[in-house]
Amino acid sequence: MSQGSRSSQPLSVGNVVSTAVRLYRSHLKQYLGVALTATLWGLPPFIAAIVFIAITAIAGSQSSGLGVLLGLLLSLGWLFLTLYCASKALMNTAILSRLAYGDLVSQPESTETARRKLDPKSWRFLLVAVLVNLLLFAVNFGLGIAAAIPQGIVGAVFGTESPLFALLALVIRLAVLAVYYWVWAHWFIPEVPVAVEENVTVGSAVSRSWDLAKGSASRILLVILVASLITIPIYVLAMLPFIFTLIAALSNPLAMGSTAMMTSVLSSLAVGVLLLFGLGIFVMPFWQAVKAVVYYDLRSRREGLGLQLRNNS
Asked: How many CB atoms lie within 10 A of CB 59?
C-alpha cells in the first residue's frame, strides 16, 4: 500500500482481510520461514518434559530423597526453558506483524533486520501476553460473579426450573459473552505496538491496544469472525480422521473397549494433533498479517497520515 493510497476512512472488514491475504501471498516464503521458526521454539519444552519424566522416574526408583530433589531442580529448569522458548516463539510471531506493517507503510525489512531489532524485546512479548491473559481472566471472573448474583436471586424466588430463570440465564449469558468479546477486541493487537513502536513498555502496550481500539471493537470482532471463517475449516479438516474414527468407535459399542479400537482412536488423535501443529505454521502468518492491517488502519484513522515505521536500532 503506497503512501498516496492512505485514507483516514476506516478499511472495510473485507478490505482488512483481503489486504492480509495479499500480504501473505506476496511474502509467502518469508512469512512461512518465520512461522516455522516460531513453531519450532515450542518443541524444546515438550522434549524436555519427556526427558524430565524419564529421569525423575529412574531417580525416584533408586532413592526417594534424591528423586524429590532432582525433580524439584528439573522442574525449575523446565519452567525457565518453557518461559524462554515461549518468549522466543512470541517474538518470532511478532516479527510477522512487523514485516507486514513495514510493507503497508512502504518500508519493508528483511527477516534478519526485524529479528535483530525485536530479539532484545523477547521477554517483553511474553510479559505482554501474560498480562493480557491475566486481565482477560479477571474480566471473565468478574463477569461470572456479576452474572451469578441476579441468577441466584431469581432462582431463589421463582425456582431454577421456572421459565423466567431460564430466560434470565440465557440473556445474562449472551450479555456476558458480548461484554467479554468486546473487551477482548480491545486487546487484540497488544504485541504489534511493541514490535513496531519505540520505547513501548508492557503496560503501555496493553493500554495502547485498548486506546487504538476505542470505538472500533465491533469492527475488530467482525474482522476476527471473517478471518476465523477462513481458518477454522482448515483445522476441521485436520481433525476429520479423528472425528470419523471416533464416530465409528461410538457406533460400535461392542468394539469400543477393545485394544484395537482404542489404538485406532488414539492414533487418529495423534495424527490430528500433528496436522494441527503443521497447519499452524500456515495459519499463523495470516493472523499476524490481519493484526498488522488492523493496527495500521487504527493508527491511520487516529493519528493521521504519513505514518513511518520507527527505527528501533
From this structure: 18
pTM of the entire predicted model: 0.84
Please determine, for residue 14, whether its predicted confidence score (pLDDT) is greater than 80: yes
3-class SS of residue 311: coil
Helix axes 122-158, 64-104, angle to 10 degrees: 100
Opening angle at CA 103, ends 197 and 38, nearest 5: 70
Phi-psi group of 159: left, alpha or beta (phi > 0 → left; psi -120 to 50 → alpha; rest → beta): left
The C-alpha atoms of residue 7 and residue 92 are separated, in whole angstroms, by 30
Domain locations along the chain:
16-302
Cell of 135: 486481565
**CA gap 262, 245 in Å, rounded:** 10
Beta carbons of 291 and 90 less than 8 angstroms apart: no
What does the DSSP 8-state code read for residue 197? S
Report the residue count for the chain.
Answer: 313
Q: How confident is the model at residue 175 (pLDDT cuts 50, 70, 90)?
A: very high
User: Residue 45 and residue 48: Cα distance in Å, rounded?
Assistant: 5
| 156 Cβ contact list (under 8 Å, min separation 6) | none
Alpha carbons 62 and 215: distance in angstroms, whole number: 63
d(CA 284, CA 138): 27
Q: What is the pLDDT of residues 19-51, one digit of tens each?
A: 999 999 999 999 999 999 999 998 898 888 888
